Amino acid sequence: MGVEGKERTRDLETGAQVLSGNMGKTIQRLRKAYNLSLSELAEQSGVAKSIISQIERNETNPTLATIWRLSQALDVSIERVLASGDEEPFIEKSSKADTPILVSEDGKMRLAIIGWLKTIEWLQWYDVQSEPGGVLDSDSHQRGSVECLSVLEGEFEVEVGGVVQQAKAGESLRYRCDRPHSVRCIGTAPGRATMVCILKAAVMD
């Protein structure tokens, strides 16, 4: 092999190490974001715990099949796992016209979906605006789900299982939403709040 061939091989090996290093950081970051241990990710992906550990420490170059299994378990694309730089900025802008709006049955409460639609199966958040007297009745979400209502303007009350609690501007209510629940805008002034719903949360006793 000539000098040029050796340099090309060395460049390719260096590039592979950089790619593997970025991939390891990405997998580790995603695993921690999902609050998964190495053992849990291994169980979900079918990839040995020791292999995942080596990938995260940049000690091995995994096969495409291994990358695919990990991407499936972490619910991301292979392209995302193989992204060449974890310091690249991520900014996504949505216009007012692109923001989906939900309306309560009485027509008095509007929920703008301001959360990322890709997370809607496990994390939802809304900008809530209501006329006085507006009511949002909701069915049960899956077991263990929790909702948080942070009041920005006016006054709201939440009812869950026959228990009612009120909150004014600057206050928040956190409550189980794995049973029927209602959110009401009380008082004589319009209300505004941010609502976050965490689905697939840890089951509460």
Report what the structure shows.
It is built from five helices and ten strands; from the N terminus they run H-H-H-H-H-E-E-E-E-E-E-E-E-E-E. The protein has 205 residues and is α+β, with helices and mostly antiparallel strands. It has two domains: 3-82, Orthogonal Bundle (434 Repressor (Amino-terminal Domain)); 96-198, Jelly Rolls, CATH 2.60.120. The strands form two sheets. The chain has a six-stranded antiparallel β-sheet with strand order 1-2-3-10-5-8, with no helix packed on it. Strands 4-9-6-7 form a four-stranded antiparallel β-sheet, with no helix packed on it. Strand 6 and strand 7 form a beta hairpin. The radius of gyration is 24 Å and the shape is elongated. The termini are far apart. Mean pLDDT is 81; it is low at 1-20 and 201-205.
Keywords:
single chain, 205 residues, alpha+beta, 434 Repressor (Amino-terminal Domain), Jelly Rolls, 2 domains, 6-stranded antiparallel beta sheet, 4-stranded antiparallel beta sheet, 5 helices, disordered C terminus, DNA-binding transcription factor activity, transcription, Transcriptional regulator with XRE-family HTH domain, transcription regulation, TransReg_Diox_bact_type
Task: List the topology elements.
Elements: H1 3-33, H2 38-45, H3 49-56, H4 64-73, H5 78-81, E1 101-103, E2 109-113, E3 123-130, E4 135-138, E5 146-153, E6 155-160, E7 163-168, E8 172-176, E9 181-186, E10 191-198
Antiparallel strand pairs: 1-2, 2-3, 3-10, 4-9, 5-8, 5-10, 6-7, 6-9
* Residue runs with pLDDT of under 50 for 5 or more positions: 1-20, 201-205
Main pleated sheet: 6 strands, antiparallel
Class from helix and strand fractions: alpha+beta
Number of domains: 2
Strand portion, in percent? 25-35%
CATH superfamily of the largest domain: Jelly Rolls
How big is the Rg?
24 Å
The percentage helix is 25-40%
Could you give the order of strands across the largest sheet?
1-2-3-10-5-8
Mean pLDDT equals 81
| Basic shape | elongated
